[in-house]
Write a structure and sequence with these properties.
Number of domains: 1
CATH topology: TIM Barrel
Strand order of the largest sheet: 1-2-3-4-5-6-7-8
Number of strands: 8
Largest sheet: 8 strands, parallel, barrel
Bound molecules: phosphoenolpyruvate
CATH class: Alpha Beta
CATH superfamily: Aldolase class I
Structural class: alpha/beta
Helix content: 40-55%
Strand content: 15-25%
Distance between the termini: 11 Å
């Protein structure tokens, strides 16, 4: 049975607090208090989280963070702990985004520690995996994603998890305005699903996981992705900064 779609906005480091608040207010107005057919998650940067959490009170729109550190407290200057995210009422957290893997040298091991920290602290990790252009050209797209996924999920106690979201994001299309073909994404989703079935069981995969696509999705391309049986939603970057675009994507998801 198709799962309820989930649409996640990743606003990256694009908005100051006042701009974030404006965008959230617009989205609440446009989406209504209850996007019932679709799960909608907003991931602002850390600073506005507290403010956004208050704005989302009483709505069905959920709050997520863009990153997490794996220790609960201590001498880790500049880091944000799971407890802090809980205090801001975050339910979701993006882990292992390609921009963090590339720009901040996050390794598979670090991603794994973050996934474990999220699950142990009742946060739903959105685990990003995906190949670079060079890896795809070398015929390694499946092996790269498989390695990232197995590493990210190592020693994760599924029975502690509320849910786990896997975001397949081909790195080379992020921010280009040109997504991969929906069938291409679906092929990778088949692979990811098969891997989870082997690692756990089809029943556990079905209970705990949603597998989504991310990479230059906009309101025009969204339906073509959501039509694919195994694509449970999308992680949206650029288009999530524009009210009409993001609302269009959520509405497209509501049709499937
Ligand atoms: C992303 O960075 O996760 C992403 C999907 O970005 P965009 O939609 O801009 O390609």
């Amino acid at each position: 049975m198709p799962k309820k779609k989930i649409i996640i906005a990743n606003w990256k480091m694009n908005l100051i607090e006042a701009e974030t608040v404006l965008l959230v207010k617009e989205l609440i107005k446009e989406l209504g208090d209850s996007p019932e057919k679709v799960d909608v998650v907003l991931c602002p940067s850390f600073i506005p989280l507290d403010e956004v959490s208050k704005l989302l009170e009483g709505t069905n729109i959920k709050l997520g963070a863009q990153d997490i550190f794996w220790e609960t407290r201590g001498t880790y200057t500049g880091e944000i702990s799971p407890r802090m995210l809980q205090e801001w009422n975050c339910e979701y957290v993006i882990v292992g985004h390609s921009e963090r893997r590339q720009n901040f040298k996050e390794t598979d091991e670090m991603v794994n520690k973050k996934v474990i920290a999220a699950v142990e602290n009742d946060l739903i990790p959105i685990i990003c995996v995906g190949e670079t252009k060079a890896e795809r050209k070398a015929g390694k797209k499946k092996s790269v994603v498989k390695k990232q996924l197995l590493a990210a999920l190592k020693n994760v106690k599924l029975d502690r998890a509320k849910e786990i979201i896997i975001a397949y994001e081909p790195v080379w299309v992020i921010g280009t305005g040109k997504p991969v073909k929906p069938e291409d994404a679906e092929e990778m989703h088949v692979m990811v699903r098969g891997l989870l079935d082997k690692l756990y069981t089809p029943a556990l995969r079905d209970k705990y996981f949603r597998i989504i696509y991310g990479g230059s999705v906009d309101s025009k391309s969204a339906s073509d992705f959501f039509k694919q049986e195994l694509i449970d939603g999308s992680l949206v970057g650029g288009a999530s900064l524009l009210v009409n675009e993001f609302v269009g994507i959520v509405k497209a998801a509501a049709n499937y």
